[in-house]
Amino acid sequence: MTSPVANQPRRRGTCPGVLAPMRVGDGFLLRVRVPAGVLHADHARRFAELGDRYGNGLIDLSQRGNLQLRGIADDALEPVTDALRAMGHVSADAASEAVRNVLCSPTAGLDPSALMDVRGVARTLDARLAEDTALHGLPPKFGWLVCGGGIGHLADSGTDVRFDAVDAERFRVSLGGTLAKAAPLGLCRAEDVADVASALGRAFLDLRASLPEPPRRMAGLVAAIGTAPFVTRLSAQISPPPPSGGGLGWGQVAHLMEVFGSAEPPHPNLLPRGEKGFRVGEAPAFLTTAFPFGRLTAATLAALASSCVEFRITPWRALILVAPSSDAESIARAHGAILSHADRRLKLTACSGAGGCDVGTTDTHATALAIADRAGPLLDHVRMVHVSGCAKGCAHPAIADVTLTARDGVYDVALSAKPGDATPHTGLSPADAVARVADLLTEESTGA
Ligand code: SF4
């Protein structure tokens, strides 16, 4: 029997969930929101079983720190949903699931250099968002972030509302963007985060409704009306920011921003540069494993689950294996995981392409990997190679050093361009496109 949810597939561009499966090129995609990004190895094993039995065995790590099961058939939606519900990974309804978009520092509780272990705060916020029906009208991509600082900080993750720890008890609250760009409101206590979030969500909904074209994201609303209306509404819960650079908390944030600098996914602090992992003080060791395009197989997830006690799901399309066994690294390597900061596959970005999206006409992942093979050291000075299945550019709509845009089975190749930008290198077969990229990078490196 076909599940009722199969009759209400989500449109592309909205956010999928377990209760809002999205029909894509290879079947239904189910996004599982994992509170605080902490996934016990037993649950990871069960995810792998479900992906293998009911899906096509492919699992994605999303840039929002979620797991996605792919290729689920219509008649498998019900048993998969039931199994996930039994594991506690299904919300009461689709509306309460959709608002649970909370990013949490993935090294929380593992990293003594962090200012605060924010897992509890992130879980409390996750639960509040689900319970507070007044917030269920927030736009689908509206997100929250709880960062404890340290080596797994989220300074460069953009979101709608940020809570960045400034010491062991308090957060800096800011709106719309990365740590450097978000507009600061003030400081709040850790135990008040859920109440502050609830008030901010309500304020966003009220204030946007007063505009003729209501913005769908916090950055747009702040650009239109500033932060003063939010400060007025939250004056009882947020203390005003201390003078710039001088006060406790604000000076700390300025220092963090200086120290953090810029992060590229996956976080450079988390992929060892030559070391085999981390042991920080008495905290458990952990090992970071990234995956090309953030995609792994159910078999890989199951194998990794046998080598650690817990996973942390990062927004950098990497998993942190907590308390890895001595053979965790060799298991990860045997399954094609990225274990080195120098792995050139980290430079590759690609959408699902043919097979994963009904618009795609080329195997974008195979093309990108072929470029890494062919270009080799030429990629060392390149930040990103983007292979897009069409001009929409879902994986990276912005400019990349090298961009391939597919249409009708061929590629247009351009340097320093967005998907769909005009270029003289058009209509190339996948093999010719790979060769053209290598030629263009050679010309660039030699100045020819
Ligand atoms: S960019 Fe890729 S995923 Fe997005 S619509 Fe085009 S082919 Fe599909």
From TrEMBL:
GO terms for molecular function: 4 iron, 4 sulfur cluster binding; heme binding; metal ion binding; oxidoreductase activity. InterPro entries: Cbl_synth_CobG-like, NIR_SIR_4Fe-4S, NiRdtase/SiRdtase_haem-b_fer, Nit/Sulf_reduc_fer-like_dom_sf, NO2/SO3_Rdtase_4Fe4S_dom, NO2/SO3_Rdtase_4Fe4S_sf, NO2/SO3_Rdtase_FeS/sirohaem_BS. Keywords: 4Fe-4S, Heme, Iron, Iron-sulfur, Metal-binding, Oxidoreductase. Residues 98-233 form the Nitrite/sulphite reductase 4Fe-4S domain. Residues 21-86 form the Nitrite/Sulfite reductase ferredoxin-like domain. Pfam families: NIR_SIR (PF01077), NIR_SIR_ferr (PF03460). It comes from the Bacteria. PANTHER family: BLR3264 PROTEIN (PTHR32439:SF9), FERREDOXIN--NITRITE REDUCTASE, CHLOROPLASTIC (PTHR32439). This is Precorrin-3B synthase. It comes from Azospirillum oryzae.
